[in-house]
Amino acid sequence: MTGSPLSCPLVVDLDGTLIHSDMLHESSLRLLGESPLSVLKIPFWLASGKAVLKRQLSDRLTFDPAALPYNEELVAWLRQQRSEGRRLVLCTASDQSVAVSIAAHLDLFDEVLASDGVVNLAGRRKAEALVARYGEKGFDYAGNSVADLPVWEHARHAIVVNASASLQQEAEACAEVEQVFESPAMGLGVWRKSLRVHQWLKNLLLFVPLFAAHRVGEFDMLLTLGLAFIAFSLCASSVYIANDLLDLESDRKHPRKCKRPFASGSLPIWQGVVVAPILLLASLGLASLVGEAFLSWLVGYFLLTCLYSFKLKQLVLVDCLMLAVLYTLRIVAGAAAVEMSLSFWLLAFSGFLFLSLALVKRFAELQVQLLHGKHQAAGRGYFTDDAPLVQMLGIVAGYTAVLVLALYLNSADVVRLYLAPEWIWGCVPVLLFWVSWVWLQAHRGQMHDDPLVFAVKDKASLIAGAIFALFMALGSVGWVP
């Protein structure tokens, strides 16, 4: 069957073509987040066929089609085709209810063909269904994967989307290629964002006990903590990936987080599912080389972050308390790595300071949501009206950390560790300024999602940090003017 482009229906695939994602993967992760025990049923559903699995998932889950990462370039082209009078058909291996919901949201397609709980409409089955409906060479088809090759064999024209160069060549051997839509870049920069390498700065907290005890010159301890730093960083990256995979929908509704690699579709979900456990295993392997005590704390950190990701981040105030615990736990783990004890002063100071930073992080997020007219933070238990109270609690926590530092300066530990302890008093006004400065910037809407990332990029924070370190150094060497 031949004919003009307008008389020939344009059939469009969904997963990896119309959207930069896969609905089966999205649904499985959503089930894991909402009902972890139900994931154990997936192998039994799959044993009855992919169509059954997809139907079971769609019956148990709801999703917001507006939040999906659509291929905007393709969607714009499809709208142009339809405006010229072309008939558009959405044909996908995803479940019928999922496909209908997406089609209704886009208001773009004249017809929807999808898996029905019995037949998985993919590969040759999709090709057979389309030939039966439109005839041999009676349709054009937009697809993205090897599974679409049998369909292109029977299509008049091929529209190749998000495909590799080799797949494009195979498509050209099957049918005349009408249009090509390139896939988004997947270089090292995308993975760096996904691993959040910049967040590894937090793991420098492992070295704090060594600095606090004035034992920085001990090379063997530095080497041990260096290995611990790598182990903690790999573990943190595995958690970041897992957290991003579980937060797909809420991240897509966030003005900035929607640009994260998995939320935007820059990275396929399945790659994150594979990489996260590999990073975790590598982390545990390195941690075992550091020592049993450090390994125990690292496992504890991982379990707490999992608990945070699955539930605690949704609980008001508990989420910030947990973030403060996770920050402080890095210091505890660093002490365990080099078999050092921690003082009450250091733990109290860290707890209050990191609670303040956790609250400033949440306050900044609420400010962004408020500016975009949102009433509630997506995936959180906060309302935007809570921002003033969160701000007050955070400032109090920050000033309490300053008070703990001031009280510490009257302890016997200061006289024992510092040759000129009077210099250390200079740290108090510096910290007081920095805490106030951070909250002032957050109040003005100039705070990054993560205050530690803000601190390493902010000139005033860097100067304050340098002056703080100078006072500590002067107190340590006992310099007298």
Explained architecture:
GO terms for molecular function: transferase activity, transferring alkyl or aryl (other than methyl) groups. Its main location: membrane. With 481 residues, the protein is an alpha/beta fold. It folds into 3 domains: 172 residues, HAD superfamily/HAD-like (Rossmann fold); 156 residues, UbiA prenyltransferase (Tetracycline Repressor, domain 2, Orthogonal Bundle); 137 residues. 60% of the residues lie in helices and 6% in strands. It contains 22 helices and 6 strands. Helix 8 links the parallel strand 5 and strand 6. Helix 11 packs antiparallel against helix 14, helix 14 runs antiparallel to helix 15 and helix 18 runs antiparallel to helix 20.
Biggest sheet, in brief? 6 strands, parallel
Q: Please give the radius of gyration in angstroms.
A: 28 Å
Order of helices and strands: EHHHHEHEHEHEHEHHHHHHHHHHHHHH
Q: Could you say how many structural domains there are in total?
A: 3
Share in helix: 55-70%
Structural class, by secondary structure, is alpha/beta
Tally of strands? 6
CATH topology of the largest domain: Rossmann fold
Oligomer: single chain
Give a brief rundown of this model.
The chain is α/β, with parallel strands linked by helices and 481 residues long. The protein has helices at residues 23-34, 42-47, 50-60, 72-83, 96-106, 123-134, 149-152, 165-174, 188-195, 208-212, 219-246, 248-252, 261-264, 269-290, 292-310, 318-337, 344-371, 387-408, 412-417, 427-443, 451-457, 459-477, and strands at 10-12, 88-95, 111-115, 140-143, 157-161, 176-181.
